[in-house]
Amino acid sequence: MREATESLQDIAEALRLAVSLVLSGDADLVEIVVLSLRVSLTATAVACAIGLPLGALVAVARFPGRGTALVVMNALMGLPPVVVGLIVYLHLSRAGPLGFLGLLYTPTAMIVAQTILIAPIVAALSRQVLEDLHDEYAAQFRSLCLTRAQVVGALLWDGRYALMTVALAGFGRAVAEVGAVMIVGGNIDHLTRVMTTAIALETSKGALPMALALGIVLMALALGVNAAVHGLRASAVRHAYV
């Protein structure tokens, strides 16, 4: 009983110190959070630029082997992060085909790894959303004699608010990633250390206050982004009925 009480007291003290770090704007904490956001937001933007048009194209196109393409697309949503990290590492290492770029153990390498991970998620989810939308407006599109590119553009615009949720899913996957970014980034202090890798490191060192502080910020960011997307969608619905 005494040991349990002491353990709870230690956790409470660590939590108190963590809140103090967050409120004081600790320099190391801010640096890690800013880098995490830069890497994850960039990866999400690039993945959306690739995945949304691809998902829309597959949603409207009918071609031989489409069923197989859908199976592959859905299967890629479950890419193992460490495998993606290893593949990117092999390509960016000195002996790899892209080694001359010198990108290994840089934020750019982490962005590449996260993009590869979340682009299939964005493509697969947007394909489902836009295929349902296309089925609803297919007759109207045919009557207007629109080209495939015009149909894709119309679907992306009309489904933009639903696609925010898709982008949110991609961002959530990116910002929570550990394995791939650890392999290609190296978790280097003041260079490639992001929230998830820092949490793993600080926990292994027994530095619970910093680990908890990063965890609090990570949860707050996730809740904040979700609230922002929900607010945008709710605002759009209200204006649609005005």
Automatic annotation (TrEMBL):
<dbReference type="InterPro" id="IPR000515">
    <property type="entry name" value="MetI-like"/>
</dbReference>
<dbReference type="GO" id="GO:0005886">
    <property type="term" value="C:plasma membrane"/>
</dbReference>
<dbReference type="GO" id="GO:0055085">
    <property type="term" value="P:transmembrane transport"/>
</dbReference>
<keyword id="KW-0812">Transmembrane</keyword>
<feature type="transmembrane region" description="Helical">
    <location>
        <begin position="206"/>
        <end position="229"/>
    </location>
</feature>
<keyword id="KW-1133">Transmembrane helix</keyword>
<feature type="domain" description="ABC transmembrane type-1">
    <location>
        <begin position="33"/>
        <end position="229"/>
    </location>
</feature>
<feature type="transmembrane region" description="Helical">
    <location>
        <begin position="161"/>
        <end position="186"/>
    </location>
</feature>
<dbReference type="InterPro" id="IPR049783">
    <property type="entry name" value="ABC_perm_TupB-like"/>
</dbReference>
<keyword id="KW-0472">Membrane</keyword>
<feature type="transmembrane region" description="Helical">
    <location>
        <begin position="104"/>
        <end position="125"/>
    </location>
</feature>
<feature type="transmembrane region" description="Helical">
    <location>
        <begin position="39"/>
        <end position="61"/>
    </location>
</feature>
<protein>
    <submittedName>
        <fullName>Sulfate transport system permease protein CysW</fullName>
    </submittedName>
</protein>
<feature type="transmembrane region" description="Helical">
    <location>
        <begin position="68"/>
        <end position="92"/>
    </location>
</feature>
<dbReference type="InterPro" id="IPR035906">
    <property type="entry name" value="MetI-like_sf"/>
</dbReference>
